[in-house]
Amino acid sequence: MAISTTWRDSRGFSRLLRVISIWHKVTRGYLDLHRPLFPEFFVALQKENKIKYLKDGDVVEGDHKIRVFYTPGHTAGDICLYLPTAKALASGDLVLGADHQYGLVLSKPDEVCGGKMKDRIESLKRLLSLDVKALLPGHGSPVIENGYDQIKIQLLETFRIEDGRDSEKPWLRMAEVLSDLGDTAGAIECRKMVFKVDKNCPEAKDMIARLDSENV
Length: 216
Hints:
There is one protein chain. It contains eight helices and eight strands, in the order E-E-H-H-E-E-E-E-E-H-H-E-H-H-H-H. By secondary structure, it is of the alpha/beta class. It has a domain at about 165-215. The strands form two sheets. It has a five-stranded mixed β-sheet with strand order 4-5-6-7-8, with helices on one face. The protein has a three-stranded mixed β-sheet with strand order 1-2-3, with no helix packed on it. Strand 5 (about 65-70) and strand 6 form a beta hairpin. Helix 4 (about 115-125) packs antiparallel against helix 5 and helix 5 crosses helix 6 (about 170-180). The longest helix is centred in the last third of the chain and has 17 residues, at about 145-165.
C-alpha cells in the first residue's frame, strides 16, 4: 500500500511531493519474490528510504491519526488503514470496489504470497466492527457513502467462492455473522435469501427460532 503527500498551489494544481510504500513485516519475505521482476522499483524505494514496515495497532501520525489493521487473507501481509475522523478505510486488496472487472479473481487468496481463505474471512469480519462510510479500495472505484455495505458484500462473495454460488450456505453463514454483530435486520434479510435457495433449510429454521427468542 502507498501513502502519497501532495501540495496544492495557489492556482489549484496538485503536485506529488512524496510517496511511501508501507507493508506489514510479514510481507518482507514475499517481497523478495517480486524483486527480480521489478529491480529498479525496489532499488529506488530502498535508496530513498521509502519502504516502511508497520504492524497491527500502529498509528500513522499527521494532520489526522491513521490506525493500522493487520488483515491477512489476500496475502499474508495485508494491512488496512482506517481514518476514524472521516470514517474512511483504505482496504487494499481485501475489499474491492463494486465495479472492478476482476473482482472474482482478486477475491481469491494469493497463495503464492501466503494468502489463505480462512484468514481472509476473519479479516473481513474484523473490518465489520469498524464504522466505515468511505471505502478506498486497491482496485475499483471508491465507495463514498456505503463503504460498510461493500465490506459485507465482499464477505458474502468470499463465502460464495468457498461454498458455491448456488448453495444456501453462504447466506446462512452471512446471517450468522450479522447476527453476532447485532445486525438483526441484516440477518433476517440473509435468512430470506436462504429460503429462496432451500425452502426447507433446517439451519435457517433454527436461526429464525433463535432470533425470535432474542427479540422477545
